[in-house]
Amino acid sequence: MSMLRPTESPRIGFVHVSIVAALVMLVSSWVFVLGWDRQQSFSFFSTETAGRAWGFIQDLAGVGRTSEPAYAQLSEWSRTARLAYDTLAMSVLAIMLAAMGALITFMLGARNVMGGGGLPAGVTFGLVRASWAFARAVPELVWALLAVFVFSPGILPGAIALAIHNYGVLSKLAAEVVEGMDMRPVEALRSSGAGRGKALVYGVLPQALPRFMTYLLYRWEVVIRTTIVVGFVAAGGLGMEFRLAMSNFHYTTVSLVLMWYLILVLGVDAASAGLRRLAR
Known about the structure:
mainly alpha, single chain, 0% strand, MetI-like fold, 12 helices
């Protein structure tokens, strides 16, 4: 006679916990919004809110204004084209500086590379990791505020601010790629007599660079959008024009700036897709 096995309780996996947590946060968010909504002078879901939103959209479109909208004027497109070029140049300079810093330091912050190297390797690992954390922890806007005090206003302080922040992000992502890769090629090179440096160059870089390029191109797309933030502190480009237009209630100029950002993001996205195909 076969013995009956006790019914096993179902295992609760990470995916199930994540789904439940996401649902709890979603419900909690709406409870907070509705609770906050009751403290305001007008309701979040109301005809007044919808009317204010529709009025702002009409301002952006230039409805009801006697003057011609900025986005319909060729002279305004020509004037802001230079600012769009400065924005693109800022993003390219920023991502190149960040990539250089990440390429120099990402192996020094990988545990499987620096582990077992004694006290000097441990100190180097800790300092490199601390620099990444500090660079990521400070927002780009704060870095831009500090850079403007050192350099004259323009695209250079904005590029430096974006480069410092993205240096921390790119380096951390690249180090995690190294920590998750197969180290047997490196061990094989070391056992065949190759030095530590050559083993890392020929065993790690070929595996890490394709992923690094993917992260680099993605961060470039993010940098393009973030230039509008650093532009608020006189870092140049379309961001500064956006701040001035909002301050002076030139809403059709705001629409023009947003159109330029859409063009830039689509262009960078197309360029990134082409570069990824070449990398394969």
